Amino acid sequence: MSFTRTTLPLTVALALALPGVAAADMPPGPSQPSTPTSGAPTHPSPSTSPTHNTEQNPTNVQTPTDELSDEEILMVMETINDTSAEHNRRAQKAAKNKRVKKFAEMRVKHAKGAKKRQTALHVRHKLKPKTGPTDVAYKASMTETYKDLDTATRGNEYDTTYIDDEVQALTNVLDTIDRRFMPNVDLPELRDELNTVRAQVDSDLKEAEAIRDALRALPAT
Description:
With 221 residues, the protein is mostly helical. It contains 6 helices and no strands. The chain has helices spanning 10-25, 70-94, 98-124, 133-146, 156-181, 188-217. The radius of gyration is 23 Å and the shape is elongated. Residues 24-67 are annotated as: Disordered. Keywords: Signal. This is DUF4142 domain-containing protein. Residues 69-211 form the DUF4142 domain.
C-alpha cells in the first residue's frame, strides 16, 4: 500500500563521463602542467531518498526534496485518507477471508477517523489544504499500488494481493511521515496528529504482515 525514480539520461551520463576517459587515454605533455578542472563530479549521484519495497509489489514512493508547508502536508494526508478508505471499502466487499474483511473494515474506520480529526484541525487553525507536486505524485503512487486488485481472482489470490498492497501502502505512509512530514511540520498540533497517525499505521502494518504470513501458510486451492 510510488513516486517516479529519478535517473540521469544515458546521453547526459556519457557527456559527464567521456571527458575523464579521454583525459586518461592521452599521454601527458612534458611542457603542459596539469591544471585543476571544474564542473560536474565524475560520478554524480541522484539525490533521491531510499524507499521500501516488498517482493510482491515493488511500487515505491519517491517524493520531491523541497520543503513542505503545513497546508501541503494536510493535503497529502487527505489524499492518503481518501484513497485508503476507497480501496479498503472495495476490499471489504470483495475479500473472502474473515480476518482480511475485518482488517479492511478497520482500515476504513482509521482513515475516516484521521480525516475527521485533520479536518477539525485545519478549520480550527484556518489552514487550507494546498495541493502540489507531492500530493499529486502520492495519489498516483497509491493508485499504482492497488491496481493489481483489478485483475486478481476472488478468493485467496485476491485476499493475498490486497494484503500485500496494504503492506506496501502502509510502509510508504510511515516512510513519508518520517522523511517528509516530520522534518517540515511547524504547527505543534499537526505534529501531534502525525504522531497519532504514525502509531496507528505502524500497528496496522504489523497486523497486515501477520495476516500475510497466515495467508501464505494456507494450502493452495
